[in-house]
Structures
1.
Amino acid sequence: MSLSLADKDNELWMVAEGDSTIARLSDGRLFIDPATEQQTFKNLVLTLSYTYTPVTLENDQLSLTSDVEATATYKETYTLSGRGQVNITATKK
């Protein structure tokens, strides 16, 4: 993960494994807007929605939790959905 200044004050680019998003800095914490992405694989449509907790920095480690909701639809007939949490920690090199 890398962080770099964005165009606006109090905003940073967060880049990890080819994905990027803008985070806003307020009161010493980073806030990330919710995001949704959709991918299509032939007859299957996968939709992923992410909601993030504020990012904290403590002892050179960034920590956040992402609530993830996934929905897969096959041939517009069958649907499977689920949700869970992903805990993310990044250590400064």
Note: Residues 58 and 91 are 10 Å apart (CA to CA).
2.
Amino acid sequence: MTILTLLFVTAGLVSFAVLARSCAAAIAAFGTLRRALAHCDDVVVARVTISEQRATCLRLVSSTQLTPRAPQSDELRAAA
């Protein structure tokens, strides 16, 4: 094998290792997010229908009874 082939094989293995680590971190963050949201009672279901083809502005309308939000951890912000 030539040096060029060895470089490509090494780069491929390193890339695969980085991809595997990133996937593992994403799965762990998703699990953290699911556990945090399991006890969250602040759930909003929204349905948006676009009836015109031009650009429209959407306005978020919230209910009058808002519960105080729990402090969010860095893991949840990263997962979002």
Note: The chain has a mean pLDDT of 78.
3.
Amino acid sequence: MRIGTLFVAAIAAATLVGCSAPGTIRPMYFPGGFNPFIRVVQCTQQDCSVTVAVTENSSANFCVPDVAEILDVSGGAAGQRNVTWTITTDGYEFSKESYKYGIFIKSDPDDEFKNVQITGNGKSLSLKFEHQVTGKSYSYALTVRRTGGNKSFCKTLDPWLIS
């Protein structure tokens, strides 16, 4: 009888774990460490530049922006950073639509992100990151779309900023 009860309890526990909300999953990245599977852009200066290339899959009719998975601003002194993402592939722009804007900060409890601007005919997206709170990770989403007559959206990226 005890084995049967234990079995039912184990099934119930596995079900509850499987149904729970996933929460925030952080990348396997340690500042200063090496991970060959993750591309990192180090930003130790006030002005940071990140390039975004777009790959088109014409047979499946979708596009995918390609950017470093981690923007690491943990190096250098604390203080404001000006971060600029620039699309290097012709025929694409950051979205200016209010319902699907070029960047979406998924969590900003410390009000660290300010003044987002899309410039250069949609090729550049910049924002100010206050960098007053260190040791935190922020998830954000980048939204790119095609230019010209077909302004369909590309797949949305979910990279990280590590402070």
Note: The CA atoms of residues 44 and 75 lie 5 Å apart.
